[in-house]
């Protein structure tokens, strides 16, 4: 295995991801409705998605699957004929899940139904109202503040009707039935980082993993509306897939050019948590589990307690345009998406590498590395000061020392300070020259 191949930012992937993100951006998604179906149809052009429908009204762990919501148009017409908050101009102008209305009213009766952000006065906020009948608009605070007094015509053309919540999933089979779950959410309208960046990263990861021969684990990709959609998936798979989950990641907000953030699973000590901590070593942050955030809350509910963490950059909400119209495709670039894909791919590949345990073929003493052309022939001072040589030799000695069948590659990466990709690559070299043997764990 050549670790250059797996660590490099692949510009083609980044461009592909950004193109897909731009295509998905205009769609008005919600918990259930035509926007979600359209999103899954487009994703289905790139990976073989199977679609599951969960009928409206279905009880899911005490929650109720909502009706499908179809937004067709909305705007406010002011006393002077000017129009505001036109849904045709931006999906975020309409409160997601808003009921229909067609009425005239005074400005003061309208204002409580208009949401804005006084501390980000030029941006439209993202507001939802899923489970209680409500209507509302979202406006930049500057526009809201300048609405003249008088009579307003308020029109919202939306429909709630029984249908189904839909989620999509795709699998890549491996040698074992144990699964790695990649989960991301498809309920946000017209925002790029939250969470189309996660959606396109999952789609690209599928394609990259599809090219890996001899996968050990089976990979499952779930694209579901956040919270209720994920609970639907958990309910439908509780006795089948869920017991087979070996590890997983929720992908969220991976499009900002900022530090990575890994939030540990509720258990905190699982293999994916150890891998997350390894990869955050240089500049990333590790967060303990806490029960707010994205779908790790459902996977980490006590009845499931699954080994699934959250990867983002940085943590959802810890960036300036979160849940606003400022979260545009222009802010999320192909190279950043490509580097997010690289990180997630390397984390997943760490599970693959760590599925092997290595043992010395002859564990007595240190092997004579120069005999295998693995060690410099002259023992000179510069060999200790040439960083890369020194680090590689040290990593190799750690690997040879800990290849005892008890330690895994994560242990060896932790001890040596090398990345697990480097350790896996060194292990392959030592395997080739016969100094190590290996078994599936
Ligand atoms: Zn969000």
Description:
The chain is α/β, with parallel strands linked by helices and 441 residues long. It has 14 helices and 18 strands. An eight-stranded mixed beta sheet has the order 1-10-12-11-13-16-14-15, with helices on both faces. A four-stranded antiparallel beta sheet has the order 5-4-9-6. Helix 8 (271-279) links the parallel strand 14 (261-263) and strand 15. Helix 2 (11-24) crosses helix 10, helix 6 (192-210) crosses helix 10 (334-353) and helix 8 (271-279) crosses helix 10 (334-353). It is elongated. Bound molecules: zinc ion (ZN).
Helices, strands, pairings?
Blueprint: H1 3-7, H2 11-24, H3 34-43, E1 50-55, E2 59-60, E3 63-64, E4 68-77, E5 83-84, E6 101-106, H4 107-110, E7 114-115, E8 137-138, H5 141-145, E9 151-161, E10 164-172, E11 179-185, H6 192-210, E12 218-224, H7 228-236, E13 245-251, E14 261-263, H8 271-279, E15 285-287, H9 296-299, E16 308-312, H10 334-353, E17 356-360, H11 382-385, H12 387-402, H13 409-416, H14 420-432, E18 436-440
Parallel strand pairs: 7-8, 11-12, 11-13, 13-16, 14-15
Antiparallel strand pairs: 1-10, 2-3, 4-5, 4-9, 6-9, 10-12, 14-16, 17-18
Zinc ion binds at residues 188, 194, 323.
